[in-house]
């Protein structure tokens, strides 16, 4: 069996290095060709890998190439190897395939931006890090990729760094991601202890190994639970699950292609991938799956409710992403690891498309993101509208769109789990159904408000570049509409087709994907069972009810301002995002600030002012307080030296007695 | 005289030297106090060498004396250099570096 | 010990061969002195070449010395064991890099008496090598004083600059003060054990555990505590770190770069020899103290760095924080931990000298100009320099797969398997804090517009154009939280007259500085490739130490 993974990894790296070194001097066309070309090469290699993988028996579909062993010291042995198995093959196809489409889309979206070359260099770097993340054959290099995608995300959120809000959002994302990296690092150390220094998937997860060792025979239950939970901390931070979700909505400050690629299709799903990859560790500590289920269910519902009242087109989609990631984790918690991955794939299709459509709308309106200032765009942006509807139907899980099959595989898995697991799992199933209804509501609220009724915004300024502005009557506020060009539309059509038929990957009866993934990620439910058909119907009904409510409220394209006054308290509650941000402020930031103020010794005033902005600044004022001790006076220094000596001396005399 | 007598004197000298460093503001005096501390150490080395009948203490004293002499040269040079540019060597007025 | 008379000892040829690396550096010192007489005023930069050649030859001789059997030389005063050779290699590497940065820096800072500078820099390296190779408290002390005396003068070398004079004076007084404590501690240990040789002390303590509980116990404990104070000062551990930022800020930056690394190597190796080896049997007593000091150093060192606006000073505090990670290895006190200590020192040498190297290139003629504002937009003003700095900072922050990541990884791994799990977790948390201040410099280099012109460091005044951008950005943020993105990008394009900025603060990099940066970047990035043999050597050396 072929293993071309090293070359898949190499292609975007070459692109990154080439663009990083020479990009500034290159013409835009060359940058675009290099930037997209390397990802296309990666995709082609991933397809070749897949074809050769399909040619061998399912049991042999694992290939692990060790490129070099960089540390051998006793039992401590870490090779740098790349793994090619069904799970990584699927992930690589998504990363390079969807990644390529978004690269193409970026050519159109970023045209005219002075940082064009920088953007493509960063995007290529991201694809490289993400490839490493999914192809690494041990936890240490998983961490390298994990940190790499975090870095790329940080750089790209802050791409328009002259905007203070973008810079702040980048920093927020960075802080939360570091918490996740820290969780992964702790998990790695615990694995170290349990497996005597081995970190490779073969030893730890039994991938590609004939005699897999059951984790329960290696470490006591408490340690396994700690490993699973720290892994989930990492997954939750990367995949924006409660309570580490705060960075994702702010991350929408980045350019829209970044939101589509990193914050919808690929990076945020790294957590889902990690849980599927390490499923043997999670199933060995069943309590951890309960934790995953609770967190995921809460996130799915929480994010969906918030999405119902947001007015920023990208933020609605960001909350929707959180909610859908919650679904994936719910499926995995119920044992349907392949269902989680299936939803990951279809979600990559339709959510990337939703972001691209949103980007096309924003682009057309010259930067407007508030849906209250849109409306009536259906005819002027017909192509975008229909693609929006297709991806919206896929997201709402309406038959026969892609999301229908994958989401209902998850709901089916939960229902299956509930038949043996008890009331808690039925509650989770209920949450899943409720969220399905909310999903139908918020996405069609978005579509109706944006595309129906009359245009409500200010007149759009004429296109800067010229060429593709829509000609219109005088006095038409939409006369300056920037119609999306081919570079924007072509990738959207491809994804539209995939959103429509992507469900065919894993239809009841054929089960292509879950059979393919079976060696790497088990599934929980027979897709032909009666239970599944019941679940399917229930999910569909909920989604249709949600859409119907959205139609009744916004079907004429009403602005969402007026009617929401009627349910004021709830809306305020949701607008304030369930007061979670306020809770952070009140429960963590303020007490730490108070503490640090108490510890402060005569510090300049500006630290006080700076100290009101978050955890990082709380550390800052603590630091400033300590700096106050660093007076610059020699005699203070001799005194601290002497006092330190006295303390140590007293300690030693005390122990010598 | 017992060893403890030598050690007591050495300890007292060391403490006096340390206090001198802590309370004086003139770097010259501070430096002299440090020399006093070093000589207190020399005393203890010689006492130990005598009572242990071991030559290593004596050798250590030679090294310490040499090092102390070298320190005098370097220390005085730095202090003089500061004095030339400021005509004031009070250590409480030297704190351009802090924070 | 008493039976042998040291006065009849005659050194053999083998003894001299074992200190060959030190002798070569000494020869280079003499060659520098002679060349200083021969070279005309404008060409003193070539003195650095003499030193670099000396360092390279000395480095090659390490390979030869490594092949000799046996290690002890000069009646056990000095050893040429693997640890000493590893440390010597790191010190020589640091010396070479510092020398490469020196000529252009000295010329730019108009530092007179260049000849003395090179001589003293090499002499301090000699002292460091001696201290790292010391196998006797006497040699530890002599090596320590040798490196310190040379560094006092180097710090105060720019005679017209009050900050340097102040740094020299503070360093001198505080360091002599701490040396007195160290020496007193050595004297009491000698009194308690009757020995000054490091293996002898260990042997005595191993054989006479019972005797200690009677008369000599207090002597030993007081001696240990005073030695600990002295060593903690030298490695700048909290609460003995106060001198570090001031001295590092005031000294010429090449000297800071060298001393921040070299002193740490020498002092940590000596600390490991004295405490982990000689006082091995007393581990239960000193381990809690080192534990507490390590925790304090990691937390306070990182906290103090967070609010630093001056990069040079931030790096000084970061060297305090790094001392904390190294103390974790000392507290763990296993062969694995000592090996990780050596590896960390090697990684720290390249990344820290590199970071200081970029800082000294950014520095202005008056020895100031190393604040964050001065790094603003470096990514555009000098992309190569900014990229190098980014590599060093990522490495210092411990981002995989750089040398710094491996080093932290080894240290914390050794702590984990050596039953110091809490220490390792505190260390990881502290290094998370470290990420912020290192990456803030990266942020300044790549995401902030260049600060126009030359201006007083203390006044954060801004050019009108820049202020306007700031106001516009703030305004946009306050009025419309979801401001349109396309508008902002055009704002970035037209706002600042970039060309006029670039010419006013162009940074020139001499060939030798560029070479040093390339070497440091290459080693930082590629250490992952030869981590395995390096770590294997360190492990073998550390295990040999324990027997």
Question: Describe it for me?
Answer:
The complex is a heterotrimer of chains A (657), B (99) and C (547). Chain A is mainly alpha-helical and 657 residues long. In chain A, 67% of the residues lie in helices and 3% in strands. Chain A is built from 26 helices and two strands. Chain A has helices spanning 5-22, 28-54, 86-109, 116-135, 139-157, 164-194, 201-204, 221-238, 247-250, 256-265, 270-277, 279-284, 286-307, 313-333, 337-364, 382-396, 402-421, 423-451, 486-501, 512-517, 530-554, 568-575, 580-599, 605-610, 615-627, 634-656, and strands spanning 63-73, 76-84. A two-stranded antiparallel sheet of chain A has the order 1-2. Chain A is globular, with a radius of gyration of 26 Å. Mean pLDDT of chain A is 80; it is low at 463-474 and 595-614. Chain B is an all-alpha fold and 99 residues long. Chain B has a single domain (3-93), classed as Helix Hairpins (Orthogonal Bundle), CATH 1.10.287. Helices cover 79% and strands 0% of the residues of chain B. Chain B has three helices and no strands. Chain C has helices spanning 13-18, 20-38, 46-67, 82-109, 114-133, 137-155, 162-193, 198-207, 209-234, 243-250, 253-278, 283-306, 311-332, 335-362, 372-375, 378-381, 383-397, 403-417, 421-447, 464-479, 485-495, 498-504, 511-526, 531-545, and strands at 72-73, 78-79. In chain C, strand 1 (72-73) and strand 2 form a beta hairpin. The model of chain C is unreliable at 454-504 (pLDDT under 50). Chain C is mainly alpha-helical. Chain C has one domain. The radius of gyration of chain C is 24 Å and the shape is globular. In chain C, helix 4 packs antiparallel against helix 5 (114-133), helix 5 (114-133) packs antiparallel against helix 6 and helix 14 packs across helix 24. Chain C has 24 helices and two strands. Chains A and C meet through strand 1, helix 5, helix 6, helix 25 and helix 26 of A and helix 7, helix 9, helix 10, helix 12 and helix 18 of C.
Task: Kindly summarize this structure in a few lines.
The complex is a heterotrimer of chains A (657), B (99) and C (547). Chain B is an all-alpha fold.
| Number of distinct helices of chain B | 3
- Sheet with most strands of chain C: 2 strands, antiparallel
Radius of gyration of chain C: 24 Å
The counted number of beta strands of chain C is 2
Distance between the termini of chain B: 51 Å
What is the level 1 CATH name of chain B? Answer: Mainly Alpha
Instruction: Characterize the largest beta sheet of chain B: strand count, sense, and whether it forms a barrel.
Output: none
Rounded mean pLDDT of chain B is 89
Percent helix range of chain C: over 70%
Give the largest chain-chain interface (CB within 8 Å).
A-C, 72 and 79 residues
Number of domains of chain B: 1
Low-confidence stretches of chain C: 454-504
How much helix, percentage-wise, in residues of chain B? Answer: over 70%
Structural class of chain B: mainly alpha
- What's the rounded overall pLDDT mean of chain C? 84
> Could you name the CATH topology of chain B?
Helix Hairpins
Q: Please provide the count of β strands of chain B.
A: 0
Number of DSSP helical runs of chain C: 24
| Terminal-residue CA separation of chain C | 20 Å
Radius of gyration of chain B: 17 Å
Strand content of chain B: under 5%
């Amino acid at each position: 069996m072929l293993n071309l993974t090293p070359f898949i990894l190499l292609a975007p790296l070459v692109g990154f290095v080439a663009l990083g070194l020479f990009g500034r001097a290159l013409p835009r066309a060359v940058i675009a060709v290099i930037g997209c070309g390397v990802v296309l090469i990666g995709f082609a290699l991933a397809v070749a890998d897949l074809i050769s993988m399909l040619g061998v028996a399912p049991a042999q579909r694992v290939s692990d190439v060790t490129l070099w062993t960089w540390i051998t010291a006793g039992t401590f042995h870490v090779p740098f190897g790349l793994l090619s198995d069904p799970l990584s093959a699927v992930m690589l196809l998504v990363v390079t395939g969807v990644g390529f489409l978004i690269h193409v889309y970026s050519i159109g979206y970023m045209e005219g931006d002075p940082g064009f070359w920088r953007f493509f260099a960063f995007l290529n770097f991201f694809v490289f890090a993400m490839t490493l993340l999914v192809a690494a054959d041990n936890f240490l290099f998983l961490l390298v990729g994990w940190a790499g995608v975090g870095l790329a995300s940080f750089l790209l959120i802050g791409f328009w760094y002259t905007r203070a809000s973008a810079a702040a959002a980048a920093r927020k994302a960075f802080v939360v991601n570091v918490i996740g990296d820290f969780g992964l690092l702790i998990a790695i150390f615990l694995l170290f202890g349990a497996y005597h220094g081995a970190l490779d998937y073969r030893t730890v997860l039994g991938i590609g190994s004939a005699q897999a060792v059951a984790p329960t025979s290696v470490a006591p239950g408490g340690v396994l639970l700690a490993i699973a939970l720290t892994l989930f901390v990492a997954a939750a931070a990367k995949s924006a699950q409660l309570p580490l979700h705060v960075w994702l909505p702010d991350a929408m400050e980045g350019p829209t292609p970044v939101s589509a690629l990193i914050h919808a299709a690929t990076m945020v799903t790294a957590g889902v991938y990690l849980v599927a990859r390490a499923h043997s560790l999670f199933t060995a500590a069943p309590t951890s799956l309960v934790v995953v289920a609770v967190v995921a269910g809460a996130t799915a519902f929480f994010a969906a409710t918030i999405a119902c009242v947001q007015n920023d087109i990208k933020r609605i989609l960001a909350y929707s992403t959180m909610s859908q990631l919650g679904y994936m984790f719910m499926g995995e918690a119920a044992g349907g690891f392949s269902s989680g991955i299936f939803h990951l794939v279809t979600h990559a299709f339709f959510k990337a498309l939703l972001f691209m459509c949103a980007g096309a709308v924003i682009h057309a309106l010259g930067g407007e993101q508030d849906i209250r200032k849109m409306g009536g765009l259906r005819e002027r942006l017909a192509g975008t509208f229909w693609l929006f509807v297709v991806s919206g139907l896929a997201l709402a899980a309406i038959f026969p769109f892609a999301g229908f099959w994958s989401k209902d595989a998850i709901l089916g898995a939960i229902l299956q789990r509930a038949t043996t697991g008890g009331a808690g799992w039925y509650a989770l199933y209920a949450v899943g159904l409720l969220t399905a209804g909310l999903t139908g509501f918020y996405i069609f609220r978005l579509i109706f408000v944006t595309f129906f009724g009359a245009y409500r915004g200010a007149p759009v300024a004429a296109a800067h570049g010229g060429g593709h502005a829509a000609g219109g009557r005088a006095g038409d506020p939409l006369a300056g509409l920037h119609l999306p060009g081919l570079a924007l539309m072509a990738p959207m059509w491809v994804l539209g087709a995939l959103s429509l038929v992507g469900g065919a990957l894993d239809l009841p009866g054929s089960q292509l994907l879950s059979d393919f993934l079976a060696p790497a990620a088990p599934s929980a439910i027979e897709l032909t069972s009666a239970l599944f058909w019941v679940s399917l119907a229930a999910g569909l009904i909920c989604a249709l009810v949600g859409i119907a409510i959205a139609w009744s409220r916004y079907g004429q394209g009403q602005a969402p301002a007026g009617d929401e006054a009627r349910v004021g308290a709830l809306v305020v509650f949701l607008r304030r995002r369930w007061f979670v941000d306020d809770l952070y402020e009140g429960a963590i930031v303020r007490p730490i600030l108070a503490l640090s103020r108490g510890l402060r010794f005569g510090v300049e005033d500006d630290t006080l002012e700076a100290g009101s902005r978050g955890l990082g600044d709380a550390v800052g004022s603590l630091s400033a307080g300590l700096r106050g001790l660093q007076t610059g006076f020699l005699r203070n220094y001799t005194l601290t030296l002497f006092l330190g000596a006295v303390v140590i001396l007293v300690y030693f005399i005390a122990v010598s007695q | 005289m017992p060893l403890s007598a030598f050690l007591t004197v050495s300890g007292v000298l060391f403490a006096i030297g340390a206090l001198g460093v802590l309370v004086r503001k003139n770097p010259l005096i501070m430096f002299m106090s440090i020399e006093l501390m070093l000589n207190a150490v020399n005393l203890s080395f010689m006492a130990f060498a005598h009572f242990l009948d071991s030559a290593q203490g004596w050798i250590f004293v030679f090294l310490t004396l040499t090092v102390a002499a070298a320190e005098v040269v370097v220390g005085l040079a730095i202090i003089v250099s500061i004095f030339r540019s400021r005509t004031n060597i009070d250590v409480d007025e030297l704190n351009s570096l802090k924070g | 010990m008493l039976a042998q008379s040291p006065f009849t000892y005659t050194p053999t040829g083998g003894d001299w061969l074992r200190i060959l690396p030190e002798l070569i550096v000494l020869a280079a010192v003499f060659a520098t002195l002679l060349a200083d007489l021969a070279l005309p005023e404008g060409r003193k930069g070539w003195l650095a070449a003499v030193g670099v050649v000396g360092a390279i030859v000395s480095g090659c001789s390490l390979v030869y010395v490594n092949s000799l059997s046996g290690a002890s030389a000069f009646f056990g005063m000095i050893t040429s064991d693997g640890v000493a050779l590893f440390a010597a290699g790191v010190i020589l590497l640091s010396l070479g890099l510092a020398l490469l940065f020196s000529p252009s820096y000295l010329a730019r800072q108009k530092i007179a008496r260049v000849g003395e500078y090179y001589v003293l820099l090499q002499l301090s390296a000699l002292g460091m090598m001696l201290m790292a190779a010391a196998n006797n408290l006497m040699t530890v002390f002599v090596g320590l004083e040798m490196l310190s005396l040379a560094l006092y003068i180097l710090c105060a070398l720019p005679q017209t600059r009050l900050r340097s004079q102040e740094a020299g004076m503070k360093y001198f007084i505080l360091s002599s003060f701490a040396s007195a404590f160290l020496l007193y501690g050595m004297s009491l240990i000698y009194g308690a054990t009757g020995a000054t040789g490091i293996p002898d002390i260990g042997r005595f303590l191993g054989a006479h555990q019972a005797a200690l509980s009677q008369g000599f116990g207090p002597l030993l404990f007081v001696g240990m505590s005073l030695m600990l104070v002295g060593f903690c000062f030298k490695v700048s551990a909290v609460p003995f770190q106060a001198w570090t930022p001031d001295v590092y800020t005031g000294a010429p930056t090449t000297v800071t770069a060298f001393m921040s690394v070299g002193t740490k190597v020498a002092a940590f190796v000596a600390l490991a020899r004295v405490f982990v080896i000689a006082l091995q049997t007393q581990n239960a007593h000193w381990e809690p103290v080192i534990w507490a000091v390590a925790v304090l150093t990691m937390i306070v060192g990182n906290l103090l760095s967070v609010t630093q606006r001056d990069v040079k000073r931030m790096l000084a505090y970061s060297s305090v924080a790094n001392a904390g990670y190294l103390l974790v290895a000392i507290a763990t006190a296993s062969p694995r931990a000592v090996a990780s200590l050596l590896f960390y020192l090697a990684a720290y040498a390249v990344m820290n000298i590199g970071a200081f190297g970029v800082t000294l290139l950014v520095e202005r003629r008056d020895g100031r100009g190393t604040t964050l504002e001065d790094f603003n937009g470096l990514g555009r003003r000098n992309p190569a320099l900014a990229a190098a700095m980014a590599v060093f900072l990522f490495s210092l922050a411990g981002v995989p797969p750089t040398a710094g990541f491996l080093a932290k990884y080894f240290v914390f791994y050794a702590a984990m398997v050596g039953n110091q799990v809490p220490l390792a977790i505190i260390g990881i948390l502290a290094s998370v804090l470290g990420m912020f201040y290192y990456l803030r410099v990266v942020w300044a280099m790549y995401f902030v517009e260049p600060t126009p012109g030359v201006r007083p460091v203390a006044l954060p005044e801004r050019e009108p154009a820049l202020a306007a951008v700031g106001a516009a950005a703030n305004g946009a943020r306050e009025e419309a939280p979801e401001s349109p993105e396309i508008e902002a990008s055009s704002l970035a394009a037209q706002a600042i007259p970039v060309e006029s900025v670039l010419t006013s603060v162009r940074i020139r990099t001499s060939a030798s500085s560029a070479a040093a940066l390339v070497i440091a970047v290459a080693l930082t990035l590629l250490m992952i490739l030869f981590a395995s043999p390096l770590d294997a050597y360190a492990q073998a050396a550390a295990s040999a130490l324990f027997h």
